[in-house]
């Protein structure tokens, strides 16, 4: 593959940790949780409380939503950003949110602790370049059917602008099956750890599209060596404004967070 000037693994050097708030992702396990979309002050506040109490160390939530149909809920935009900041501050967690448009990136950087680049924008080069000019960590999700080389070269676009704080997020690729939304590629985790110095986290929510598969795939991702997980959690998933089938409710997330903690502890002991 082409030269990985910044993201490539160097002989004898392990994963280089990326700091978000006071978490060193790559050394500390990132447990990111929150709703697919920020819907209201109450929704994001109650979710922030629940995920923090369960042991999450990062709040996620979309305010600019990349929806397949323009007629679906597309997020609260700027209003959602300030709601997220308040919710995250109320529980002392850092938060991150997706940016779709390079023109919004500076505003998002002012509010958020990390920038997400979603699957649909993994090769949006102007967006990658703009993210590379920010002084914020970037969670770069794998493209809908991107190869690992394409994904790592997308990370190079960000790093080449001077921003070395990139975290890769495996979120499944388009597969052949009708029951799962995507095929979660867990082999990508150890493969990327061989190829790259960047931390690798896994999103089993978008990776499967089914709430019942989130726990088994989270634990499998821990076994595969991931540096963190990104999980969608909503107060009332059947009535969510997006991704109804894959979000966990508070008690499901709390039970899973405890299993993740134990699985991670076990993995470290191996
Ligand atoms: C998300 O995490 O909110 C999201 C839209 O995910 P993806 O870009 O992986 O589809
Ligand atoms: Mn979602």
Please explain how this structure is put together.
Helices cover 37% and strands 14% of the residues. The chain is built from nine helices and ten strands. The chain has one domain: TIM Barrel. The two termini are 32 Å apart. Strand 7 (138-141), helix 5 (148-159) and strand 8 (166-170) form a beta-alpha-beta unit. The strands form two sheets. An eight-stranded parallel β-barrel has the order 3-4-5-6-7-8-9-10, surrounded by seven helices. It has a two-stranded antiparallel sheet with strand order 1-2. It is an alpha/beta fold and 270 residues long. Phosphoenolpyruvate binds at residues 36, 62, 66, 98, 118-120, 141, 171, 203, 206.
Describe the secondary structure blueprint for this structure.
Blueprint lengths: L17 E3 L2 E3 L4 E5 L6 H14 L3 E3 L17 H14 L3 E4 L6 H7 L2 E4 L7 H8 L5 E4 L6 H12 L6 E5 L17 H8 L4 E3 L1 H5 L2 H13 L4 E5 L17 H20 L1
Parallel strand pairs: 3-4, 3-10, 4-5, 5-6, 6-7, 7-8, 8-9, 9-10
Antiparallel strand pairs: 1-2
Helix pairs in contact: 1-2, 1-9, 4-5, 8-9
Bound molecules: phosphoenolpyruvate and manganese (II) ion.
The site of phosphoenolpyruvate (PEP) has 11 residues, from loops.
